[in-house]
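Aim 2 progress. For DNA-binding transcriptional ArsR family regulator, the working sequence is reproduced below.
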Amino acid sequence: MHAHDNSYGRNAEESPEQYGAAAEVLGLLADPTRLRLLQLLNSEQDVTTLTSQVEASRSSVSQHLGRLRLAGLVQVRREGRRMVYRITSDHLAGLVEEALGYAYHAVHGIPHHRNPEAPPSE
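Predicted structure tokens for this construct:
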């Protein structure tokens, strides 16, 4: 496991590659089924279990998992005859939860809030 601080360039100038990578991840999160799958994959699960928890066919779930795997957002391993999937990063899991929290506020008409100690955006 690699320990690091979570500043991820906040104090340094961000690179175009960093923005490109972030846009690619956000693009993959823009699909409701993939967003739900990523939320469910905080624990290892197989396609059958995942299909029972989302409103999509087994084939569709498999295709979404394939895209997420190719993008490096989920890991897969064989367990007997089954393939089990898991989200690759706590950063990604946090991003999914933040997006869902933001959406919860928007859907329920709850005003958005900011941490009063957060630095102003530039």
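Residues 19-104 form a domain with the Arc Repressor Mutant, subunit A fold (CATH 1.10.10.10). This observation will guide construct design in the next reporting period.
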